From TrEMBL:
PROSITE patterns: RADICAL_SAM
InterPro entries registered for this protein in UniProt: Aldolase_TIM, Radical_SAM_PqqE_MftC-like, rSAM, rSAM_sf
Start and end residues of each Radical SAM core domain: 34-240
PANTHER family hit by this protein: PQQA PEPTIDE CYCLASE, RADICAL SAM DOMAIN PROTEIN
Protein name per its UniProtKB record: Radical SAM protein
Cofactors, names only: [4Fe-4S] cluster
Pfam family, one: Radical_SAM
UniProt keyword annotations, A-Z: Iron, Iron-sulfur, Metal-binding, S-adenosyl-L-methionine
Length: 240
């Protein structure tokens, strides 16, 4: 169990169970408030083997140095950060991805999470990561042919990735919402429930050189879908 002091009280967090409790009867003095963000995301590498049109990750091939990342994590941990999320690019393409996750889990009290496209989750990688990952996120933009057109990868391969991730840790599904995927929100929420995902995170498409921001028509359809949603899988806010 980790404690984090702040202006709203004392935050208790257990990375194994995901338990989050804010004890607001306690008001720590400002001098002991945590100085780090509650959650930090780190793009381990810009490298990715997919070419999604709505990808806004920088395209030059840069990766962070492992020791530098671990130094940051230890400092964040000491200063009261609760969790770290590795992304990219595709974080599993960082040459030291496994080592970084193991050291992050073993040398800090941070909850370790990562976001992946899911096509590199071999049984060997998943087996080696077990115990070092507290939550994972997999990107699912549409089902069947829509997914294949959006991501340029076989949907069957994504399904295998989801099967693998389900054996690793609790996991959530990330969806880029645009004119194609908004029509498949029902199908994706059903899929999320079927594969055992605990969250469905809806991310409005952001403009890149190749695509525009999610437009108003899609935005209204998204709001309408969310307001009528009765599914069992939680819809977190992007800031959760
Ligand atoms: S899988 Fe993710 S990082 Fe890779 S191109 Fe697509 S959006 Fe970008």
């Amino acid at each position: 169990m980790k404690f984090r002091n702040g202006p709203n009280g004392v935050h208790l967090f257990d990375r194994l169970s995901g338990l989050n409790v804010l004890v607001d009867e306690l008001r720590p003095k400002e001098a002991v408030w945590s100085t780090s963000p509650r959650q930090v995301s780190i793009a381990l590498t810009n490298v990715c083997d997919l070419h999604c049109s709505y990808c806004y990750a920088p395209k030059h091939k840069a990766s962070l140095h492992t020791d530098q990342v671990l130094d940051w994590l230890k400092e964040l941990d000491t200063e009261g950060c609760l969790g770290i999320g590795f992304g990219g690019g595709e974080p599993t393409l960082h040459p030291d991805f496994l080592d970084i996750c193991k050291r992050a889990a073993g040398e800090t009290q941070l909850a370790v999470t990562f976001t992946t496209h899911g096509h590199r989750l071999t049984p060997q990688l998943v087996g080696s990561l077990k115990g070092s990952i507290h939550f994972a996120r997999i990107s699912v933009d549409g089902v069947g042919r829509t997914y294949e057109e959006q991501r340029g990868k076989q949907f069957a391969s994504l399904l295998r990735g989801m099967e693998s991730i389900a054996t690793l840790s609790p996991f959530g599904i990330n969806v880029v919402v645009n004119g194609r995927t908004v029509a498949e929100l029902d199908a994706m929420s059903e899929l999320a429930q079927k594969v055992g995902a605990s969250e469905l995170l809806l991310l409005p498409q952001q403009a890149t050189k190749a695509v525009a921001n999610m437009d108003g028509v899609v935005g209204r359809a998204l709001l309408d879908w969310v307001s009528h949603y009765r599914g069992k899988v939680r819809l977190p806010a992007a800031s959760d």
